[in-house]
Design goal:
226 residues, alpha+beta, Alpha-Beta Plaits, 2 domains, five-stranded antiparallel beta sheet
Length: 226
């Protein structure tokens, strides 16, 4: 018997709006909304909004949490709010005792197993929580993404203050979100990670806020290619 495919929180929302799907890493993801070429153009020239909820999201908490990556020279001194690329994905330090491992779709399973083994060998109290299904992730990509987010969020998102691989909890459209700066090559890009139950509200709110900026709902074909 085949394993049932997992669906992101906006699957039915996307299906009702003409989405075409692809299966990847055990997930059924939006490939495009009918015109992949136009979606790529929107991402490159204005902004695209993609449901990236299939990305793995592992929270590691505890005073000794950063000791789980002894081979990573930057990790023990990684500043709060900063991120660094590691073999399994991106590691972000959200607090002195809290970090997020952000992986490609499906990557959290193997990463969680390795972390659980490493935690069992530690003397300090460390907890591991898989938030992949509990948190939605909306990804905003393109040159207009910073201006659009500034309409919904009070943070200073300038390059000097919010560089690539920066992370912070903040309010976006009156919802609590973890805002990751994750550029797509030369294109500025942000991931908004928050409660799954608020995904549809936030998706619609962002689309309305970006109407006059050329924002477009996009699928993985445009989001991955940039």
């Amino acid at each position: 018997m085949s394993t049932p495919l997992q669906i992101p929180p906006l699957y039915h929302h996307a299906k009702a709006n003409g989405a075409r799907f692809q299966d990847l890493a055990g997930w059924r993801l939006v490939h495009d909304f009918g015109d992949a070429a136009a979606e790529r153009e929107a991402v490159r020239g204005a902004a695209g909004l993609y449901d990236a909820s299939a990305s793995g999201k592992l929270l590691v908490e505890g005073s000794a949490a950063m000791t789980l990556w002894p081979g990573l020279g930057a990790a023990p001194t990684l500043a709060v709010g900063a991120g660094v690329a590691i073999e399994t994905g991106m590691l972000y330090r959200l607090r002195a005792d809290l970090c997020l491992l952000h992986t490609p779709p499906g990557g959290q399973t193997q990463a969680a197993a390795a972390l659980a083994q490493a935690i069992s060998a530690q003397k300090g109290l460390i907890s591991l929580t898989d938030m992949t299904h509990g948190w939605a992730e909306l990804r905003l990509i393109g040159p207009a993404s910073r201006e659009l987010l500034s309409r919904l969020c009070g943070l200073d998102l300038s390059q000097a203050t919010y560089p690539n691989h920066h992370a912070a909890f903040t309010s976006v459209a009156k919802t609590r979100q973890l805002l990751l700066r994750q550029d797509a090559g030369v294109l500025p890009a942000f991931s908004l990670i928050g409660a799954r139950s608020l995904a549809a509200y936030l998706w619609d709110t962002i689309l309305i806020a970006g109407q006059n900026l050329g924002l477009r709902a996009v699928g993985r074909a445009a989001a991955a290619g940039g």
